[in-house]
Amino acid sequence: PRALPLLRKAAAAGREAAEFGLGDLFFRGLGVPKDQAVAADHYERAAEAGHVRAKTALATILFDGLGRPMDRVRAAKLFFEAADAGEPIAQYRSGMLLLSGEGAPRDLDRAESQLRAAGKQGHLAAMIALGEYYSRGDGREPDLREAEIWFRRAADGGDVHAAFIAGRFAATGDASYKNLPDAAKYFRKAAEAGHV
Fold first, then answer.
1. CA-to-CA distance for 177 and 171, rounded, in angstroms?
2. Shortest CA distance to 71 belongs to which of 81, 84, 80, 58?
3. For residue 125, what are the CA distances in angstroms to 88, 119, 151, 155, 162?
4. What does the pLDDT read at residue 122?
5. Cα(36)–Cα(38) distance, rounded to whole angstroms?
């Protein structure tokens, strides 16, 4: 793309946002050949300079072994750093790592905190993860009222499956109280989006 020479020039001048932009171009193959190893190099330089989204991108590459050898411990460290800086994707990924204990010791309190932070920023997958977490309890007493709140937020954010679950909660009253008009609203939303 026309932006490539400008990004390269800005990256050479030490601008971490340009390094991140180059990483994205190569990771996605936008106007350049797709090359995850080259993308990882750009993300690495941007992350070292403190670019928060680059830390998340590099963590994803390391966690999944895309263009670099898999290194889940380093990936977790980068996710936590970016999460501490308020980056919602990193908050979500950190929360999921802490729930599973993969790449970091299992810590339900910290996982819940990270997922809530991401969910409050509108991260749909975090909202759904919270709904599921509160529904199951994960070693604690399930909190169906809190599960319903997060499934409703995800449904209002456009998630079809969450809309169906929110409708079921409203129809049965299992979480709070029966509300048939709300149930109809969420079931309609799910059906119109193709939920079967």
1. 9
2. 58
3. 10, 8, 10, 11, 10
4. 96
5. 5
Of the candidates 14, 26, 3, 76, which has an alpha carbon nearest to the alpha carbon of residue 51?
14
pTM for the complete prediction? 0.90
**10-residue mean pLDDT series, the chain (196 residues):** 88 95 96 96 97 98 95 96 98 96 92 97 97 91 95 96 95 88 94 87
Write the DSSP string, the chain: -THHHHHHHHHHTT-HHHHHHHHHHHHHTSSS---HHHHHHHHHHHHHTT-HHHHHHHHHHHHHTSSS---HHHHHHHHHHHHHTT-HHHHHHHHHHHHHTSSS---HHHHHHHHHHHHHTT-HHHHHHHHHHHHH-TTS---HHHHHHHHHHHHHTT-HHHHHHHHHHHHH-SSS---HHHHHHHHHHHHHTT--
Looking up tokens 């339900």 gives: 108
- What pLDDT score was predicted for residue 1? 63
Q: Of 120, 113, 134, 128, nearest to 176 (Cα)?
A: 134
Cα–Cα distance measured from residue 40 to residue 134, given in angstroms and rounded to the nearest whole number? 36
State the Cα angle at 90 between 30 and 148, rounded to 5°. Answer: 115
- Tokens 């609203």 map to which residue? 185
Distance separating the N- and C-terminal Cα atoms of the chain: 42
